[in-house]
Amino acid sequence: MCFNADTNGDGKADNLNDVIGEDVNGDGIIDGPNDGGADLNNDGDRSDWFGIDESVQCKDGILWDDDLKQEVDKISSSAKVILIFDTCFSGGFIQEMSGSNRVVMSGVDENHYGWTLTSDGTELGVAFTYFFLNALNNKVNIVEWAFEDANNEIEKMVGPNGLGSLPVISDQIAGEVILTIS
Predict the structure, then answer these.
(1) In angstroms, rounded to a whole number, what is the distance separating the alpha carbons of residues 147 and 114?
(2) So what's the pLDDT on residue 1?
(3) Any residues with CB less than 8 A from the CB of 100 and at least 6 apart, and which?
(4) Integer angstrom CA distances of residue 179 from 25, 43, 128, 160, 169
(5) Domain extent listing, the chain
(6) Which candidate among 28, 48, 137, 157 keeps its CA 20 to 30 Å from the CA of 143?
(7) What is the secondary structure of 63-104 as a DSSP string?
(8) Stretch 68-72: mean pLDDT, rounded?
(9) How far apart are CA 93 and CA 81, in angstroms?
(10) CA distance readout (Å), 95 to 38, 75, 84, 110, 151
(11) Which CATH architecture has domain 55-171?
(12) How buried is residue 182: exposed, middle or buried, by Cβ count under 10 Å (0-12/13-18/19+)?
């Protein structure tokens, strides 16, 4: 499939049979509202949509976000659920996993690699989880505060240039969530 088969360099698609969508407004992105849509399934209309799924590589195989959501949705809606994702691009889980009585956190947004923390060449672990658990171990037993502590530590790592991504949170639990490690 070609998004814009411009083989002669005139800025227009040369073979309309190859085009599923065109960047009409020149912003480098083919999107429905601004460019008239895309024909992803070659049925002649330009009203097609597509989605992107996130996954986590587990010991026993790949866990897809849709499958994880189905399992998490089985938990009673009155239960408080805390989900922490700290892998590269894991911020993509935030929207899918968010819901009533849930706090969903990720060490980075969906477009960035995760941060690894090292000391004298020794890997200490993924930075967000390390700082988050460290805050909880130091008696900051409120999830939102521990998240802020971890976020502040990662801001220090990232520096003034802001390279990369900071942690992301969706908090759908009323009030502060108390969590202790025993």
Answers:
(1) 16
(2) 34
(3) 77, 172
(4) 50, 52, 17, 32, 16
(5) 1-50, 55-171
(6) 157
(7) EEHHHHHHHHTTS-TTS-EEEEE-STTTTHHHHHH--TTEEE
(8) 92
(9) 14
(10) 24, 18, 13, 10, 19
(11) 3-Layer(aba) Sandwich (3.40)
(12) exposed
Helix (H, G, I), strand (E, B) or coil at 62: strand
* Half-sphere CA count of 21, side-chain side, radius 13 A: 21
Higher pLDDT, 52 or 94: 94
Q: What is the pTM of this model?
A: 0.69
Determine contact, residues 171/81, Cβ cutoff 8 Å: no
Amino acid 126: pLDDT: 85
Average pLDDT over residues 67-73: 92
